[in-house]
Give the backbone structure.
Amino acid sequence: MSVVVIVTNEAEAPTLIRWAWHFATARSSDVVVLRPEDARTPMPTITYDHSSTALDDPVLRVAVETLRELDRSRTTAVEVTSEQECRPAFRPAILKVQQPYLYPTIVEELTQRRAQLLVIGKHKRLRGEQAEYTLVRQLFHRAFCDTLLIRPGASCGSRCSHILVPVARGPHAKAALGWSAQLAMENNGLMTALYVEADHGPEAEAVGRHQIESILSRAGVATTSWVSAKVVVADNIPRAIADNVSTEHDLVLVGASDRGLMRRILFGTLPAQVISGDDAVAVAVMRSARPLATRLRDMVEEWLDLRVPQMDRGARVDLVENLETGSRWNFDFMVLMCLATCIAAFGLIQSSTAVVIGAMLVAPLMTPLIASGLALAQGNIPLIRDAIRSLLYGFLLALGIGLVCGLLSPMRELTPELTARGSPSLFDLAVAFVSGIAAAYAMARPNLSASLPGVAIAAALVPPLATVGIALAFGELIVARGAAMLFTTNVVAIVLGAAGVFYACGVRGNRQTGQQRVWVRRTIFFLVLSAIIIAIPLTSVLVANLTPSKPAHLFVSDAIRATVATELARSTEIGRIVSIRAIGAGQQPVIEVTIQAPAPPDKHTLQLLADAVGRHFKTPIRVRVITNLIGEAVTGEK
């Protein structure tokens, strides 16, 4: 295990290395100094230690001198201590990395050194420091281990006794508390956990006390002689933190839960006399180790960025603007919805495929569905609200128009176009998902907009709604339920497909904070779960349609033949049984019996025969008797 520190200039190197040494000592880890240098051609990594000499790089010379000084002070501390335990051997390493692309090389070194903590210096970006600024930003937001972004104070890291840790809930505060508590214990100092509670009444302080105790407990930190808890009641969190920082503190360490607060703490909130001058306090922000799921997501995003053409800023702005306009519920949207539903209803009632296709082209429902996918990929709450409102109003309007058209229709029978939408299968889910992908991709690429009418035809939205209303008017509840399931299938699949395409094309949330809004994750989880639940009955329908009927002879056993012969012999004078066969094998098989007799059996005989044969089956059956009439005459009789 090691604590890795990045040094880029000789002015900050001593302070950063000392702070890294403090943190490494707290957890008995090694110190690794990384000296990155941008180079046009890659060079092998050079390794030094604190005994190296004759160094040309001034940053490396400062690093070696600082490590020697720390080694001497450590040796002195071990000699004067009365404890029997000795510290582990001091094994620092200095690495010089010269690469054209520094970030992947540094990440590889972090992995090889099993880094627990990465320490990076932070200062305001100056002109000409774009490369260094980009590297620091990449490492802070994307390194897999705990990361400390520190603005060094005037003490050069020589002391680390008093630490102030403003806390809140979250993994970053937990990491800050854990490291700070160990620092305070190692240096016989004091770590103060500060919690700011909003001023909501006389019980605010008691609530804040309960909150900070819960946070400390989750972080595994107990209140001791070197750990204290403090609650401040205030409405302005940054100002409250600033008011509690003094020159007595050696370090102010904040968990990086809020990027805005992080920037204000580092550069704008604390008083000038605290962060500058001879007694300046070191200010730092800590980000906890990134979980595996986050690292996998970043790997996927990097893969997509390299292999899928990404939308530039102008294209994203135009896309959002077009979808916001097209998915808003207004008079134009309502008129198009009414006309499309009427056209669809007329086409369904007269079973005209061409008319139904025309309704698909007129319907405006595809736009709010694609907008919903964009809102999920982007985390755009106002957009998804407008889209959901348009979908809901459009659904109710189309359902009402379909019901009215069904009630006014002189025809009371379901046409093939209506029945076709009453039994969706898994293929419909697949078609809707692919249609959502195609529609989103066509909108993301303006030169492919000619494909949108074909997508609208493939993913029918208004015809299923009109079918629901007409089927309800006709009293066909099964068809209405199937059409409603088809519409729900289309909505869920199109939104998921569109969200996936926009995400792949680079339309994503704010990547600077590394946080995805909770509502986005919950909505995507709900849509995926809905798709899985819907897929179960759709799969059963598909399997039933694809499963061939069982051979007829499997239904007719010797026992069934004997039962038929016995029952007919009791009630009917038959010449002989010509054949017994099963037809229409499925949910309700039909046993067809052909006999030769002078007269057909009556209804009572048929019912007795059906009851007797039915005892051989677990499902209801029908018995059909076909009689070949026999007439006889004797010569000479009158």
